[in-house]
Design a protein that fits this description.
The structure is a single chain. The protein is 43% helix and 17% strand. It is an alpha/beta fold. Strands 2-1-3-4-5-6 form a six-stranded mixed sheet, covered by helices on one side. A hairpin with a 4-residue loop joins strand 5 and strand 6. The protein is globular.
């Protein structure tokens, strides 16, 4: 067993000691979750980036969040489910229709590799999965280039990270079950941006159409 895997196993031991106390197993958090099932109030759609874990960032306990993670925290537009495999869409449906979450948060972040690839527009291998996936945010790239025609790489990268969150927020509303829940005021959706360099959290303001730093 290599060092990285061994570290994970040691981590699991600490996890078990915290949540599965042998002297009170029936009253442990996971015993309650196993008995009553999960009832998270918030769905986080975050990036697969190892530095941006929604549960860690929000200090949430097991059972608090339903989480979807993919490259660049993207939400594809609604498509008919008859053909193809829709991982993000199916998890979104389960969260809204079955779990009846009350909030959906799109969590973007600084130094996102997927958005950097999108903004660089470098050709990818013909059999790449990443290229077609990042096409979901192609609209964000065009908007940023129009707004910052002379922007340097870092400016375009950061702007692309924020603009892609707007695209995903818009795509959320193409799902009939999401729009129905929002219209009925049973569901709130919001966009957040985590700056991993500065430890700042920004929220998208739908009225002003800009991101504003959260002062907590």
């Amino acid at each position: 067993m290599n060092t990285a895997i061994l570290r994970l196993m040691v981590g699991f031991k600490r996890f078990k000691e915290k949540y599965f106390q042998t002297n009170d197993l029936d009253n442990s958090l996971y015993s309650r979750l196993a008995t009553t099932g999960q009832n998270p109030k918030t769905l986080f759609i975050g990036c697969s980036d190892s530095r941006v874990d929604p549960a860690i960032l929000t200090s949430s306990a097991p059972g608090d969040l339903f989480v979807i993670r993919n490259v660049a925290n993207l939400v594809p537009p609604y498509e008919n489910a008859i053909s193809g495999v829709r991982g993000t869409s199916s998890a979104l449906e389960f969260a809204v229709v079955n779990l009846k979450v009350e909030n959906i948060v799109i969590l973007g972040h600084r130094q996102c590799g997927g958005i950097r690839a999108l903004m660089s527009n470098k050709p990818m291998e013909s059999n790449s999965f990443i290229g077609p996936w990042m096409d979901i945010a192609a609209e964000a790239r065009m908007t940023v280039l129009k707004q910052h025609p002379n922007g340097d790489e870092d400016t375009l990268w950061r702007a692309g990270e924020m603009e892609s969150i707007k695209v995903s927020l818009k795509n959320l509303l193409t799902f009939p079950f999401v729009k129905e829940a929002v219209d009925a005021k049973r569901l709130n959706i919001l966009g957040l941006y985590f700056d991993i360099e500065r430890g700042e959290l920004w929220q998208y303001d739908d009225t002003s159409k800009i991101f504003k730093i959260l002062v907590l």
